[in-house]
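Long-time lurker. I teach an intro course on protein structure, and each term I like to show students one example going from raw sequence to a predicted 3D structure in token notation. This year I'd like something fresh instead of my usual example. Would anyone be willing to generate the tokens for the chain below so I can use it in lecture? Attribution to the forum is fine with me.
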Amino acid sequence: MRTEVITVRTGGRPAVADITDQAARFVAGQGDGLLNVFVPHATAGVAILETGAGSDDDLLTALDDLLPTDDRWRHRHGSPGHGRDHVMPAFVPPHATLPVLNGRITLGTWQSICLVDPNGDNPERQVRFSFLPG
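-- Reply from a regular --
Happy to contribute to a lecture. Here you go:
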């Protein structure tokens, strides 16, 4: 197994960061296998979705609708409403596994690999890529 950790700067507000290019560089020339993308954070996730056409913003809006940043949360450290950030990975998991054929991730035409970070308290995130040869 081959592994690498990258740092993604998400800034001080909720963000969806496209990490497809970094993942593609990681698997280039690796042959067939599986790519696992893992975010070792309690308040971030990995999603496969279309970007650039508004779906990334729609995801953040849907998370806000589903998990409002208000005072209902028992988990209370950090910014107001931060407890919802700790619930979000149950809806957007902190991992994704994708097939790789001939050193290329087999994503659909409009699919991208995205880091989903609703937590503005942490401006940088780590993402671990692991390649398991087939």
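Some talking points for your students: Residues 56 and 127 are 18 Å apart (CA to CA). The mean pLDDT is 95.
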